[in-house]
Structures are given as C-alpha cells and as structure tokens.
Amino acid sequence: MFDKRKLRTIIMCTLTGLAIAGCSPEKVSLQTETTETQSAVEEKEVQISIEQGTGDPGSQGSQGSGSQGTQGSGSQGMQGSDSQGLQGTGSQGSGQGDSSGAATDGYSRGSLIPEQTFDVTLHPVGQVTFASYEPDTSANPLADVVFLIEKNGRVLSQLPGTTADNVGSGQFHQVEAVSFTDYNHDGYDDIILILSYYPDAGPQAGAPYSLIRYYTGTADGTFAYEAEMSETAASALAEITIQTAKDFISGGRSGTSGQGSPDTSKNLQPWQKAYTQYLLNDSDAEYQQGYTLIFMKDDGIPQIVEVGTNEATGCRIVHYAEGKVHVTQLNRLYFSYIPHENLLCNSEGHMDYYYDLVYRLNGAELELIAAGYYGAEDNSRIQLDANGNPIYQYEWNGVKVSQDEYGRELGKVYDSSMAVSYDYEELYSAEEIIRVIEQY
Fold first, then answer.
1. pTM of whole model > 0.85?
2. DSSP E strands: which ranges in 159-287?
3. Cβ-Cβ contacts under 8 Å for 39 (sequence gap 6 or more)
4. Would you place residue 62 in the very low, low, confident or very high pLDDT band (cuts 50, 70, 90)?
C-alpha cells in the first residue's frame, strides 16, 4: 500500500514542480542497514543503520556500504565512499583543520575508511558526510580512530574521543557498525558506534573485543560522548551489536527494567500521566498501525502520533496543553514537521486533487495557519501541456495563483529543507510507547 503512495507522491511532486518549496517526501530520512562479510575468521559484520525518527512512511532504506561503495536508492540517498574519500576530505588529514580552514579537535588521523564513510541527513545540521579515519599510529600504536562530520568539504565537528589525546587501551581493529538514530527522542539525531580493538599487545595477544560508544546529538549540531553509559552497556551485554545497544539504552535509561509500574507512575509529570491514561483508556489500538513521538515545540513535551492501519484511517496528532490531552485528525498517512519550530504540514491527496495544510500548536488547538490546494478541474478529462504534463489549477489561502506563486507562498510559511517525518517501519506498540513516555 505504501509503495504505491510513495510512487504517487513522487509523481505528483514531479508533475507540479513543488518539490523545492513544498512538503515533499524528499525531506524525510532513510532507514538503512548494510552488512559486509569479512574473510578473516575473527572479523565481524560491518553495517550501517540510519534510523532517524524522521522517515517517510513510504520510504524504504537502501543497501549502502561495501568496499567499493554502493549508492542508495532512497529519496535522500546514501552513498558509501570510494578510495578517494568524500566531500573533499581526501585520504589523509592532519586533524588540525581542512583546506577551508574549518577547525577540528586536533586529533591526528590516517587514511579514510571508505566502507564506513557515508552521506547522511542528521538533524539539525542537514545533509552531511560522516567520515571515518584510521588512527595515525606513527607516534603511538594505541592511537584511536577518528570520526568527522563534514559538509561541502568543510569539517563541521569531530566526535570526541574517549580520552583527551584520543588514545585507547587497545590497538584499533575496525569500525564494526554505525547507527544514526534519535535514541533519546529529543528531535536531534544521535550516533551509536560499535568498534573492535586488539588487546594492547596487538593481534598476537588474541581475538579482538568489541566496545560501544553512544554520542548524544545537541541543538548546535555537535555530539557529546556518553562515557558512563557506553562503558556500562559494553560490560553488561553478552553480545554487542547495534540492536543490543539500542535495546540496552531503551530499557536502561530510567534505571528500571523498562516495564512501567504503579511504583514509578507516581513520579510522572502531568503530561506523562495524561498521555498514559489516554493510551490506556481512549486510544483504539485496533485501528492503529503503531505509535511514535514527534517534537513540534521546544518545551520538552513531545506529541504522540497515532498512525492508522490504512490511508483512510490516517494519522492523528495527540498533544498536551492546558492540563488535558487534545487530538487532531490529519488527512491520510503522510505529514512532515519542523522539529522545535512548531510547524507541521499535512501534504497529501489523490485522484488529481492534492493539498498542503500547514498547522501549528496554539494552546488546546492544532491550528491551521495556511492551506493550499491544487489539481484538475475535471479529473475525468485531464488536459496536458506541451510537455505532456497535467494542467492543474492552484489555490493558496482561497486565492487562485499560478504554480510558481503557489510554491513561493508555501515556502514563506514552511521551510521544507528543515522538515522531517516519522518512520513507518519503526513504530511502537501501545505498550511500548507507554514505557517510552514513562521513561522520558
């Protein structure tokens, strides 16, 4: 069902030319898993998981890295780099800055690791290159791997190492896995790394061991290393993978087993209690494919999205205001929103009739602040232009406009370059979303 909707939406945006200014599925993220089998007995799988809580419900991830790099086919796309590196990083770097003069944290680095370098979209910085570099072991054999966030050939930031001089307790072996996911549900993308090391005596001392690193994304686009959480997870897990790392953090953030209980509910904030009661008593899980959270405002209170089982059921936005839960029904299943900017766009339609409805939270109301509609006057007899494209009529806030005017007016109220959506493949059950809310 959703592949058809995605195809229809892509065709719609191509025909109408609104992909630049409109709320199009180009602005959503991918969910991607890539695995490379190594020939050596001790090698583990190499994978990337892009799991931003921003995916288009109809968008599927694509196969990514490999020794040569394989281009993804999703709407944003992901590309494993080749031996020349990505976005002007080059195969070598000093760690003191790039050719544009952008500063880094000063870690010396060796050659690029192509199979673990990717083009990704991370909120709030947008489309960037996540570049992995081998350690520079010329001065110290225990020098650690280096990770840079780059954009248009410039270094935006560098992931902090586990020590001030970026020297580890063992010899670096490989980057086993990388996951981009909003694990703390704050609207900013986080990073999980699985790395392996030989004991400090080197490969001759035995098989490599694996470690986890959690990096929490921030509003300024940098990442903070969560040392205690990373060390605790590595010690607690019998098997270290991206999935077990996610399971650990989702169940361990509150210091409980992850199961909600009457003993913990007394410590909940009013909005948490209200959401929990709504989910237990009022939300009809039978008609929901699942649930997720979005973050329209910057007040620390998320909104629940009820994702219906089909297009006719659509999505509902559940928000807390004035001491109560309020529910707004959207049209069909697709919408996007701009995190922390209090803007949401329900951009859908069918049968040559389409719309872009822009909302904001205003107290108890999800308020409609702008509305655009376009389509054929008679969809039984579609007229085509000289290029064979359908001729549509456009209306913005009740006034007839041209196609170009429509795009400009929409762009004035809704910056689609900042927009994200939810991931249809990563929805919670009612029981799971209650635990997420209680542990928030």
1. no
2. 171-181, 190-198, 209-217, 223-225
3. none
4. very low
